[in-house]
Amino acid sequence: MPTTDYQGGSSFASLGRSILSIRRDQVHAMEGIHDSTSSSAHDKDLESFQKQVTDRFQDLASAADVLSLSWIRRLLDVFVSCQDDFRAILFARRAALSRSPIDRLISEFFDRTVKALDLCNAIRDGIEQIRQWHKHLEIVSSALGSAAAGRLGEGQFRRAKKALTDLAILMLDEKEGGGSAGLLAQRNRSFGRSSAGKDHHPRLVGHFRSLSWSVSRTWSAARQLQAIGNNLAPPRNNEISATNGLAVPVFTMNSVLHVVMWALVAAIPCQDRGLHTHFSAPRQFPWAAPILSLHERIMEEAKKRERKNSSGLLKEIHQIEKCSRHITELADNVQFPLTEERELEVRHGVQELAQLCEAIKEGLDPLERQVRDVFHRTVRNRTEGLDWLGKWNHQE
Fold this sequence. Notes:
Elements: H1 2-62, H2 69-92, H3 102-145, H4 154-175, H5 178-182, E1 195-196, E2 201-202, H6 221-229, H7 237-242, H8 247-267, H9 288-303, H10 315-332, H11 340-395
Antiparallel strand pairs: 1-2
């Protein structure tokens, strides 16, 4: 019986070891599945970002109203969505951001965003310039539209012609670069600061303060765009491997930043716009085709004879030029009393002008708010990203 008891004890011990061994194998197997699942989720996350960027820019490139106020707002919506998705990718992998070479790539991206902040400030000034043009258009519309119930007289035409002359001078000044200098006094009002009382001392609000306080007379939008595009090369295979694929979304976001800022500068009046800034996107990236298509469409618009000397490619700017020119020609050739045919022609032109004024009025304020939002988000994301880099570098 003692032998039997011994043998029984040995059997139970073997059974226990077998169960432990099985459990260990199961744990290792589950860990393998978990690693595989994490890797798969990681890959899907990065692939999803590429697809989202591709789809968004495909919609923008195929739109019929490219370079209109509504399209520019859609462009900024796309940029903010890309920013948010990119931030989520970095946040999920923030512990890995301090490793080389991803730390360098991310730092270079945030350096480029500083240039984008300057461009946001310049775009804001361009929006203000369009707003000034709009005020003169409203004077014309009011002067010639106020006599809707009666006959148009010389007084209304004199007031309209003065407003049109002032508008023409402002727009010519902008084309020749003088308008930019005229706004320099306003350019210290960046998105991240405000005046406090009559002493105009800046009020700083944490990380939201501007990284670019003013724009000098020698400032150039073209040089800022060139700085964003400098050394913007697709990641090499060893960089992709070393960063576990993170180098790809960083390059993608760099390219998105570049083309969005370029499109804004193309559309809105800016100092030294320089639309011929080189832009390229390797065809192996799915988003390259729609982005290059969009770039080509905007360049074709810039080459049109009637747009070559325009201060901005925004559709509404072209309408301002066309509409004001038409009414100026009508006003210069009127003889009083007006014939019924000529009066109908003038009223038709004023009606088109009134519709344009309404479209600009409805579009400019929301656009300025969006540019402001892009500015603040860019500052916030940059500060947060650099904090992640600093935190993990310090821990290591």
